[in-house]
Design goal:
The protein is built from 14 helices and 16 strands. With 376 residues, it is of the alpha/beta class. Strand 1, helix 1 and strand 2 (45-48) form a beta-alpha-beta unit.
């Protein structure tokens, strides 16, 4: 057994695992994933587009490295030679998922990523039949979005049979990384997205249908906080996990942000829609924004509120709320991502395009370090 309890380089039947590969390893979250993997006893192959950066990190951690671009199919296929699984940490994932998924399906390699982009999750779920045919797992969203939120959605929905509406809200400490901000900029022209009657549709911040606050529970991390509607990956994952057709996601924000968002968002969408300006801004944040430091990742907490509801019908009205607490988002992503890799490698019966809860069950997240059920 490794130091972290993972059964090492063999599967449950005693067959040796081939190595697995982490692509995007030198990004902010990629480095955290690489360090967590080594701490858990893994020896992943580190990969990325920039040979100097990936080789430097591999030397630091004593690991093998490979460098190849994702837009060269032949190079990508060579880069996946001899591996059982790929964990993709390079975003925005709307530009990176497709070639990697195609190569994984072609070579019979499991695919995981840490995206929170609903259009990406939705597109990958459509490859379920292909994944079953090739005998592999496609498991997007194995980080903060959507591992704990997917579990909270499932736990709330389980208490309201026939639920038709789901709301999720997140409050997290710490700043965003450059990679996260680049992804936000990439999708900003599309504006707010919600799910209504099973379809992803545009939403209008400030509309009366949206709540203005959520109760994040007791303690300094909690309280009744202002929230603004937000485009999260759970708009794609939660309906697949729970079957609920109407989903709205929120993020805890300052009262000023909640008040100004309906006025400012249209202007920001226009600016971000100018491709050269958006790409310039992405380069700036990618180069200048580091993300939260080690102390923040160690001490900050995240609260996740979920509310499932059913209105009228034979069963009458019913609602249920669940509140979870996890470590800070980037640190949690590192832990959850590597534990998801371990689960997939250790469970050969898994097949198809799955949500985290669909793969491992709603209680799995509660066994991760620092996660607890606060309410519900």
């Amino acid at each position: 057994m490794t130091a972290g309890g993972f059964p090492g380089p063999v599967d449950p039947a005693g067959r040796p695992h081939r190595p697995w590969l982490l692509y995007g390893a030198y990004g902010f979250t990629g480095r955290l994933l690489a360090e967590e993997a080594v701490a858990r006893g893994h020896r992943p192959i580190l990969a990325g587009r920039d040979p100097a950066r990936v080789e430097a990190l591999a030397r630091e951690l004593g690991l093998e490295s490979r460098s190849f671009p994702l837009d060269d199919p032949a190079a990508l296929r060579r880069g996946l030679e001899g591996v059982d699984l790929v964990l993709l940490a390079a975003g925005p994932f709307v530009h990176t998922w497709r070639p990697v998924v195609e190569a994984c399906l072609e070579r019979g390699v499991h695919y995981l990523d840490i995206t929170g982009e609903p259009v990406v999750l939705e597109a990958i779920y459509l490859r379920d039949a292909d994944a079953h045919l090739q005998g592999v797992v496609l498991l997007p969203g194995v980080g903060m979005d959507v591992v704990p939120t997917d579990a909270a959605a499932a736990l709330a929905a389980a208490r309201v049979p026939g639920a038709t509406h789901l709301e999720l809200a997140l409050r997290s400490g710490g700043s965003a990384s450059g990679g996260t901000l680049k992804t936000v900029l990439e999708h900003l022209p599309g504006g707010l997205v919600i799910r209504r009657e099973g379809r992803l549709v545009p939403g209008r911040p400030g509309a009366r249908e949206f709540r203005r606050q959520a109760d994040f529970g007791p303690g300094d991390e909690g309280g009744i906080r202002p929230v603004a509607p937000y485009t999260w990956g759970d708009l794609a994952s939660a309906p697949r996990t729970t079957g609920i057709p109407n989903v709205t996601c929120y993020k805890a924000s300052s009262p000023r942000t909640v008040r100004l968002l309906p006025l400012v968002l249209p202007f920001l969408r226009v600016l971000a829609g100018l491709g050269p300006l958006r790409r310039w801004a992405q380069r700036r944040v990618g180069a200048r924004v580091d993300g939260p430091g080690p102390e923040t990742r160690r001490t900050a907490r995240t609260r996740i509120w979920a509310r499932a509801g059913r209105g009228g019908g034979e069963g009458g009205d019913a609602t249920a709320e669940v509140l979870l607490e996890t470590p800070q988002g980037y640190g949690f992503t590192a832990v959850a991502g590597i534990r998801a890799v371990e689960e997939v490698l250790a469970r050969p019966e898994l097949r198809g395009a799955l949500t985290p809860t669909g793969a491992f069950g709603a209680e799995w997240v509660l066994a991760l370090p620092g996660v607890r059920r606060v309410r519900g």
